[in-house]
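G., before I forget:
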Amino acid sequence: MRTILQTLSISMLVLTVLLPSLYLFDALGEVAMKWALLFVTLVWFAVTPLWMGRQPPANRHEHRSR
Amino acid sequence: MGTTSHETQATSAPRSEYERQPVPDEARLGFKNFLGMYAGEHTAGTELMIGPLFVLAGVSAFDVVVGLLVGNALAVLSWLFLTAPIGTRARLTLYYHLEKIAGRYTVILYNLANGLAFCFLAGAMITVSATAVGVWFGFPLPTLADMTPNSIGWVLSVLGVGLMITLVAAYGYRFVSWFANIAAPWMVLIFLGFGIVSLKWFIDATGTSVASTGDLWQLAETAIWTGVHVPGQPDFTIWHVIFFAWFANMAMHIGMSDLSVLRFARKSWYSIASAAGMYVGHFMAWLAASMLFAFQMYDAGLGSEAAVIAAAEAGRIPDPLPGPLADQALGVAGLICVIIAGWTTANPTIYRAGLAFQAVIPRVSRFHVTIGTGLLTTFVAMFPGVAMQLLGFVALYGLLLMPIGAVIVIDYWVLPRLGMQRFYAEHAGHRLTMPALGTWLITLAICLVLVRFADIEIFFVALSGWFIAATLFIGLSFLAQRRQATHVAMTTTAAPNGSATTATRE
């Protein structure tokens, strides 16, 4: 699960740069770019807190066993 | 420009410990901790003000690009060769280190100066966030010429943002620290997005075909950073850009604030991680923010000196307001970035200012001090003149704390080689020492005189000020320590069985 969330977060970061770049090369309109970027932002802030700053399950188990 | 939000980010766990002892081996941290911390903390709300102010100051493409490359390199070298070697040898907080050199009362004065400077800095960050709120609610935003609040809407907006930030700083500071870490990677890339979108605007507006880096450079020189200076604003050359970039975080490197951070570094060279902060926040972000505003100037037909002078006389220079600029470039995502950039950096700054003030009035609880500090900061934020004059304020902030950095360097490296006592206040049992306090105040007075009467601009004076402070501290230390030695010798002669320690504690 953690890997999926991390992959999703990284995809959002890639899109954060990709969307303005597509706009730069006329592959995407300004309005579409802005809406898509808002969606990317919302997904980033919804998904990233679920894994960033939290210990991976293996480490949690290790901590409990101490 | 970033503030000292370091202390709560990557290295938050052990940070509350070792306040009055060197950081032990087991608490030291690896390179990655510092890389993430520096990269995240130097992309702040104020970058969105500094970039546009460069354009108003008339930077040319060569000046701003090369100036920032060189100035930021000098800043990294300052961390590498001035701050980190002492931080990783003494491994003490700045405050304890300074207390050992200059005594507790000097630290209190330092805290007071630092706290006030933090309030102004955090005020500028709240101003930045409030401009984004203004886009949503549609009240009149301040103009470049406004020094005081210009509408009830503006006052209410600043009040709302300021109170929220103050309450979070007082209650839920850990939450903001956690949230700032989450926002940092996204925020850095949104700044990059500002640059990409504004580049597109320039390409479309000028009809330029960019097929090579040469074409891009020509566009930068002729349309983006044209070198046309707006009357009433500082007039920047490459030297201004170099010195501004070098000294933007002067309080942290040359001023030695980052001793508190780098004491946790396993190796001194880890301080090179500051390059991540400088070249992301103080190169990419400043350039991107300046491009956003440069397009407003271009769009208004202000590409020539005559046009700018005429517009300035008619009061038609576009206002460098981060909220509307970000909204125009990236829409709501851009506005969210402006609010978060201001919020996540103003918060630790208010918290830190509160801690600084609490050291001055320890009887009052941290909660109440933070609330008071936040209200003061909110009041400052209502005056847009602080943010509009940010270039000068940043230079003044660095200058204010620079002499203390010189005192620490000379005390650590030079005094023992000259046969003098390191950590003199601790050795002599003083709560206030004239060499440190005298160096601080006299250096500042000389620097202000140089700025006022010798026409040396505030952006440059700190360099000569450092050498003045170093010389003064050596001279005053020599006088103070010789007098002390004479006094001890006389006391010992008068009472051969008496204690020299007793004599030194007068």
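Helices of chain A lie at 2-24, 30-47, 57-65. Residues 2-65 of chain A form one domain.

More on Monday.
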